[in-house]
Amino acid sequence: MSSDDEDEDFKLAVALSLQENSSAAPPVSVARHETVDLTSDTEDEDEDDDLRRAVALSLQESEPVVRTDNVVREVSLPSQHDTTAGDARKDSTKPPAAISESKASTSTTGPVGIMGLDRKAMEQERLARLGKRKREPSPDRPSKQIGRTPSSETSSSFDNLQYSRGTVKRTFATKYPRTDDITIDEVLQASSVNIAVISSFMWDTEWVYKKLDPTKVKQIWIMNAKDQDVQERWVREMKETGVPNLKIHFPPMDGMIHSMHSKFMLLFGKAKLRFVVPTANMTQIDWGEVANDWQPGVMENSVFLIDLPRRSDEAIGSRMELPRFGQELVYFLEQQKVGQNVIEGVLKFDFSQTGHLAFVHAIGSAHNIDSHPTGLPGLTQAIQDLQLDNVKDIELDYAASSLGAINDTFLQRIYLAACGEPFTTDSNSSHVRDHIRIYFPTNDTVEKSIGGRDCGGIISLTRQHYNATTFPKECLRDYDSTRRGMLSHNKLLFARGRKKDGKPFAWVYIGSANVSESAWGGQKVLKSGRMGSLNVRNWECGVVVAVPDSRMKGVVPSKDTTIPPMSVFEGTVEVPFVCPGQSYQGREPWFFRTG
């Protein structure tokens, strides 16, 4: 920082201090909510803003504020689904962190915002850290398009990256043996993160703050709120809390769009960008943690993550030069309107090791048949890009936490997309039920789980959908976790089969999309004989990971079929449920309950 900047900081501090006893003085803004700058993601660059914010906040020390201590604080505006059973859900109009399940206590010890943070304490900690640093003049920032001098710390070598080609993990579960699982702390690696862009349908805000301290990590939260007035109120109340380095963002939610259901993290560090796609929300329960020291975890999820090194030239790359995985990710971020700084931040990293992966999205809106592929057409394109099409036989096992108004036409569209084939006016849905199994818990499974009925609220299926004559009940299998007693919030589509040339294949989709047209897009054949538009009601995203050819070569099919067994996924993804699952055999599924 230059000496002029330091002088300006001092002048600002003096000016603000003079307002302390002035009744006519206007209120001081407690936080600056500008676009988070991702073009330079080091911790030291905005210390001038930190100082201004700290001085402004210090003026509010004498204001008594009611403090709310919550057991669980989940920020969510469930519209009609998570993702589909929301005919039973109603939009909440409460602001972030006003949604709670517990008792409140009052305190007047210091200013605490509605997001549950002690702002004074946070800024004092920030000032203490800033004071320990030796402030030296810094050179002017280089142009965004000009690469900086490469160094050993920012080389594009993949050697020192933990997950340079990506991996799929189960989420950690308290009190259960550690297997190939991962904790939220192991995912975040908070000490090495400078900037975090996180998308989630539900939020446990106080828990997130403990995992990613906003005084140390700049953050953008992509959240779910349908109505414009609710979005504006959330933004306004977020500003009033004075939480530093935090911006909330809402993607387009107009028209038919009902849910921002996508889940991902962009974790920017000095040496790498960690890209994460979990099936979990940003809540304690979804990541297997509990609020006490005696209870086991109650909910399991899965997570894909990959570490991307900085480009060797440290320049901002071109989207068109990216492999398809990177292109689709950037396209999705553009459609969510997260801002050019985020896009440029992503383009600083090397996607060259993602050719074996596919990023699949569902962009909320109506799309004509000539649009950029998204939803099920996007899955079709992904399977083609990975050369997993030209399928002769295929079997699908889909684990989901929410089921919509499923019928044979929708099942066939999933089946065709998994084969890399488009849905057309000539498509036939005969026998599709014989090749798809849907893993969803029975009522008994939820009742007997560790968390019991109280933890079944995010597992959704309505009686109306289930009792429809078109609902494929025979496709349902009980989701019985291999970690006995756990419920599942997974969205996993396992595909196994043989191509027309006899070559076996297998892949898995990990993401936010449940088994519903809201998630994947509804599309019908019009009376005119033409294909109608693809109507997507949710924002969703996921990743397709293929089982490596080296693994497929060792597959020995059973005597009764040429389809590879589920064991083919060993080494690629841990199948979290008992397979083959039990059919319902007269048992009822777990039905969504209100209240």
Automatic annotation (TrEMBL):
Highest taxon listed in the record's lineage: Eukaryota
PROSITE patterns to which the protein is assigned, alphabetical: UIM
PANTHER family for this protein: TYROSYL-DNA PHOSPHODIESTERASE 1, TYROSYL-DNA PHOSPHODIESTERASE DOMAIN-CONTAINING PROTEIN
Record-marked site positions (Interaction with DNA): 516
Record-listed substrate binding positions: 263, 491
Protein name as annotated: Tyrosyl-DNA phosphodiesterase domain-containing protein
Cross-referenced SUPFAM superfamilies: Phospholipase D/nuclease
Residue ranges, compositional bias (Polar residues): 146-160
GO-annotated molecular function: 3'-tyrosyl-DNA phosphodiesterase activity; double-stranded DNA binding; single-stranded DNA binding
Active site: 261 (nucleophile), 489 (proton donor/acceptor)
Listed GO biological process terms: DNA repair
Compositional bias per record (Acidic residues), positions renumbered to this chain: 40-49
GO CC, alphabetical: nucleus
Chain segments carrying region Disordered: 18-160
